[in-house]
Design a protein that fits this description.
By secondary structure, the protein is mainly α. It folds into 2 domains: 8-65; 82-143. It has helices at residues 13-31, 36-43, 47-60, 82-93, 100-110, 119-143. Helix 4 (82-93) crosses helix 5 and helix 4 packs across helix 6 (119-143). The radius of gyration is 25 Å and the shape is elongated.
C-alpha cells in the first residue's frame, strides 16, 4: 500500500458494505490467478473499473474500494464568466504578444472575482490566437 490506509471504522456502514462487495468481485483476480479481464466478463463490469478497483486495493487496502467523497463543487459551473473570456481573448490578441503569466496577472487585477485563470483555457486561446488574427485579417481583406 502506498497511501496511508484509512481505517474501516471511519467509513459508513454503506461504504464498508460497498468495499466488501467490490473486494468479493476482485478477489479471484487477487488470490486465484484469474485475469482481471475474465473477472470483468463474468461480472459484466467494464475492465477499466476492475483495473481501478485492483489498483485502489493495492494502494489503499479495503477502504480504498469504497466510493470517494464527491467534489464540493459538483453540479456547479466551473466555466469562466463570459466577460472574463472576452477579456482574456482581447489581451491574448493585442500586440505585443503577452505571456500566459502576464495575462493571468492582468485578468486577476481587473476581475478579482476570477480567483484563478486556468492554463488550459489560456493555452487554447494562445494556440488559437493566430487563427483569430488570420480570420480577422481575411475579413478585412474581403471587405476591401
Amino acid at each position: 500500500m502506498t497511501k496511508p490506509a484509512v481505517p474501516l471504522t471511519t467509513l459508513s456502514e454503506e461504504q464498508r458494505e460497498q468495499a466488501q462487495s467490490r473486494f468479493a468481485i476482485i478477489r479471484p483476480a487477487l488470490e486465484d490467478g484469474v485475469t482481471q479481464a475474465q473477472v470483468a466478463r463474468t461480472q459484466k463490469i467494464p475492465a477499466s473499473t476492475i483495473q481501478q478497483w485492483v489498483k485502489r486495493y493495492h494502494e489503499e487496502g479495503l477502504s480504498g474500494l469504497a466510493d470517494r467523497p464527491t467534489r464540493s463543487d459538483k453540479g456547479k459551473s466551473r466555466r469562466l464568466p463570459l466577460d472574463a473570456i472576452a477579456l482574456i481573448e482581447g489581451l491574448a490578441l493585442q500586440p505585443p504578444p503577452r505571456s500566459m503569466a502576464a495575462i493571468h496577472r492582468q485578468v486577476t487585477e481587473i476581475l478579482p472575482s476570477v480567483e484563478a485563470v486556468f492554463s488550459r483555457p489560456l493555452g487554447r486561446i494562445s494556440q488559437n490566437a493566430n487563427w483569430y488574427k488570420n480570420r480577422h485579417s481575411l475579413a478585412q481583406k474581403n471587405a476591401s
